[in-house]
Amino acid sequence: MKKNNRPIFTPFFAGRGRGWVCVFIFLLLASCGPQKGRLRIRGEFENLPQADLLLYSPDGGIMSIDTLHIVKGSFDYETRPEDGEPHTYVIIYPNFTTLSFMARSGSDIRIEGDALSLSQVKVEGADSLVRDEAHRGKSPLAIGKKMPQSNIIKQKPGHYLLISFWAEWKHGSNVVNYNTRLALREHPDSLTAFTYSLDMQRAERPMNDYYEDSLRWRTYCDYQGWGGPLLSKLGIRNIPYMILLNPKGTIIAMGSDYNRDISPTMQKIQDKR
């Protein structure tokens, strides 16, 4: 009689070893962080076992309002941002207070805190936190008003000042450098310039604080992105953005488009000379 050497019990994975190992590795990697091009936001809250938080992006990170479902004190959310640029994300708590931060695709945001003290929530993995004033858009800027005083922005006596806000990570915002260079060329004796960079990594903006490179005018970067104190003070939440001051420090033009918002005023100044 021929002896049967086959095992009495054949494991389910027999003959499928390599394939199931690959699947296991894939699932393990997927559980460790967001997939490429995706943003993951995880949260754990004490004294908040179950709730729904609202999430939105005022600058296009996500195109609608999403819900973060807290179950047993935690939530796990993933989305695919519209592009690879950093965006502002705002979480609205049940008591209508907010948490705002800036992040880009591929980030793994971890939020921990106590529902009894939401102002002390800890955020890890974000590019920067955003102060309330920045995303609410409360701004003291208005044509005809004095520019708020700042120890960062300094104006040359007797000159108009063109202030520009931009960042390397914001596609298209470096057009302000071209426009600033053009304005200085057209008004060399009456105009000076100042540029504020919202870059957050020294690889993007390698020089510290004030610097002058090929731009040939004064520029400032504090590597805090939207969390910089000057932006909070001015209430600026979109870039590029430009502000034109007269020699007395009064705002006479401002906006995101140089040709539409700044150039006509500069031409009027030139015509009066």
Question: Topology of this structure?
Answer:
Blueprint: H1 17-32, E1 39-46, E2 50-56, E3 66-71, E4 74-79, E5 87-92, E6 98-103, E7 108-114, E8 122-124, E9 128-129, H2 132-136, E10 160-166, H3 175-186, E11 191-197, E12 218-221, H4 229-234, E13 241-245, E14 251-255, H5 258-272
Parallel strand pairs: 1-7, 10-11, 11-12
Antiparallel strand pairs: 1-4, 2-3, 2-5, 5-6, 6-9, 7-8, 10-13, 13-14
Give the overall shape, derived from the CA principal axes: elongated
Distance between the first and last residues' Cα? 115 Å
In CATH, the homologous superfamily of the largest domain goes by the name Glutaredoxin
The profile of the biggest β sheet is:
5 strands, antiparallel
> How many structural units, i.e. domains?
2
Look at the helices and sheets and give the structural class.
alpha+beta
Percentage of β-strand residues: 25-35%
Per DSSP, the total helix count is: 5
Order of helices and strands: HEEEEEEEEEHEHEEHEEH
Annotation, overall tally of beta strands: 14
CATH level-3 fold name of the largest domain: Glutaredoxin
Rounded to the nearest angstrom, the radius of gyration is 26 Å
| Biggest sheet strand line-up | 3-2-5-6-9
Q: What is the residue-averaged pLDDT?
A: 79
Percent of residues in helices? 10-25%
- Name of the CATH class of the largest domain: Alpha Beta
| Architecture per CATH nomenclature, i.e. the level-2 architecture of the largest domain | 3-Layer(aba) Sandwich
Extract low-pLDDT stretches: 6-14, 21-31, 133-137, 204-213
